[in-house]
Design a protein that fits this description.
Elements: E1 17-18, E2 23-24, H1 31-49, E3 54-55, E4 66-70, E5 78-82, E6 87-94, E7 99-102, E8 107-108, E9 138-140, E10 150-152, H2 154-160, E11 182-183, E12 189-190, E13 196-197, E14 201-202, E15 207-210, E16 219-229, E17 235-240, E18 250-256, E19 259-263, E20 267-268, E21 281-291, E22 294-303, E23 308-317, E24 324-329, E25 335-344
Parallel strand pairs: 3-4
Antiparallel strand pairs: 1-2, 4-5, 5-6, 6-7, 7-8, 9-10, 11-12, 13-25, 14-25, 15-24, 16-21, 16-25, 17-20, 17-24, 18-19, 18-23, 21-22, 22-23
C-alpha cells in the first residue's frame, strides 16, 4: 500500500522503512536504498498534497483524519474532513464571491448585518463599542412607535417626563410667565395673596361701618388715626356676616396701666378714657381667622395726649363668613374727628 506523510512518525528514529516495499533506511542500510527512499518521499508528498486530495468524490488515498476538497461544484468546492467513515463538511469556498462560508453558516469576510442577536452573548457589548454621542444628550426615543434609540436633547427629554403631582415626583409645570406667581403643592401656579385696601372713611356720626369684606379674607386690619368723640368715651368694635354685626358672644379684654375690663357685647379697644374729649386715638386692631368663622383679635391703640396705651385681645365665632366691621363708642358718643380704613387679605 502506498504511503503518505500520515504514515510516518514525527520522531525521526522511528522511521526505518519507506514505501510500500518497505525500503530499509535504518542506520547502515545499503547506499542504493537512500536513492529509492528519496523517490518514495517525493511520491508521498504528491499523494498527500497533490491532486489525490481533491475530486468530485473522496480520493482513495485520503486517510482518516485528513482534509480533502470536494470539487463536485466547480465554482463553490467544499473542504471536507474524513473521519474514517464520513466526510464532514468544513467550509465552502465561493470563487465568484471570494468568500468562505463555514459549515456553521458564518461567512468570511462577514457581511453587514450578518451577526444576529442570538450570536451575541449577554453583556458582551461594552459602551465603548457604541456609536459616539455628542455632549449634553441622553439615549432614549422621542419618535412615535418602536425603533432605534435616539440621542435626545434636553428639550426632548423634558417633553417625555411627567409633571410632578401631590403624590409623585416630576418636573415643575410651565409657569406661564410673570415674576410673582408661586408653585403650589398641588402642581399649579398661583398668584401670591395680596393686601386689598378699602376706601378710607372720615369718622363721624355714632358709628362707622365697612362692608363687602370677601369670604376669602383670612386677615383684616382696622387702622385708626386721630379718632375722637364729642365727649370722652371708649372705642368699641363689632364684626358680623353680610346680614349685620353681631352683638353677643365676644370674649374680649382690654387693659392699660390703670387696669383692665372685659366685654361680651363687642371687642372693647380702650378703657377709662381721659376726661378731655379732645384726646385722640391712634393705632390698629387686627383680626385673624382661626378656623371656620371664628376670628381672633389683637389691637394696640394709643392716646398721645394722655400718654396712654391700650392693648386688647379676644375672639368671636360668627354665624357666617365675616363681611363687615363696625366702630362705635361704648357710651353712645359721636365721632367728631379722625380717619379709619381697612386692609384685608
Amino acid at each position: 500500500m502506498s504511503q503518505t506523510f500520515g504514515d510516518w512518525d514525527s520522531n525521526a528514529n522511528n522511521n526505518t522503512t519507506v514505501g510500500a516495499g518497505a525500503i530499509n533506511i535504518a542506520e547502515g542500510c545499503p547506499p542504493g536504498n537512500i536513492n529509492d527512499a528519496i523517490r518514495e518521499v517525493m511520491a508521498a508528498a504528491v499523494r498527500s498534497w497533490g491532486g489525490q486530495h481533491s475530486g468530485m468524490s473522496r480520493p482513495a488515498g485520503v486517510q482518516a483524519g485528513r482534509f480533502w476538497l470536494d470539487t463536485s461544484n466547480a465554482t463553490a468546492p467544499v473542504l471536507k474532513w474524513f473521519d474514517g467513515t464520513d466526510d464532514i463538511p468544513f467550509m465552502t469556498i465561493d470563487y465568484s464571491a471570494n468568500t468562505i462560508t463555514l459549515d456553521s453558516g458564518v461567512v468570511v469576510p462577514l457581511a453587514d448585518g450578518s451577526i444576529t442577536t442570538a450570536k451575541l452573548a449577554d453583556n458582551a457589548v461594552t459602551l465603548a463599542k457604541m456609536a459616539d454621542l455628542a455632549s449634553g444628550v441622553i439615549l432614549g426615543r422621542s419618535s412615535a412607535g418602536t425603533g432605534d434609540p435616539e440621542a435626545l436633547t434636553g428639550t426632548q427629554v423634558t417633553a417625555l417626563l411627567d409633571v410632578f403631582t401631590s403624590t409623585a415626583k416630576g418636573l415643575a409645570p410651565a409657569s406661564g410667565g410673570g415674576t410673582t406667581n408661586f408653585l403650589r403643592a398641588d402642581g399649579t401656579w398661583a398668584a401670591p395673596p395680596t393686601w386689598t385696601q378699602m376706601t378710607a372713611k372720615s369718622a363721624s356720626g355714632t358709628s362707622v361701618e365697612f362692608t363687602g369684606i370677601p369670604s376669602t379674607a383670612k386677615v383684616v386690619k382696622v387702622m385708626f388715626s386721630g379718632i375722637s368723640f364729642n365727649v370722652a368715651d371708649d372705642l368699641m368694635m363689632r364684626i358680623g356676616p353680610s346680614g349685620g354685626v353681631e352683638t353677643t358672644g365676644y370674649a374680649s379684654v382690654v387693659g392699660n396701666a390703670g387696669g383692665d375690663n372685659d366685654e361680651a357685647t363687642a371687642f372693647r379697644l380702650t378703657r377709662a378714657p381721659s376726661a378731655n374729649e379732645t384726646d385722640t386715638y391712634h393705632g390698629m386692631a387686627e383680626l385673624a381667622n382661626l378656623t371656620g368663622n371664628t376670628w381672633c383679635l389683637h389691637s394696640s391703640i394709643a392716646t398721645p395726649e394722655a400718654k396712654n396705651e391700650f392693648n386688647a385681645s379676644g375672639s368671636k365665632a360668627l354665624g357666617g363668613s365675616l363681611a363687615r366691621v363696625q366702630l362705635f363708642a361704648l357710651g353712645g358718643a359721636s365721632f367728631d374727628a379722625g380717619t379709619i380704613n381697612i386692609l384685608y387679605m
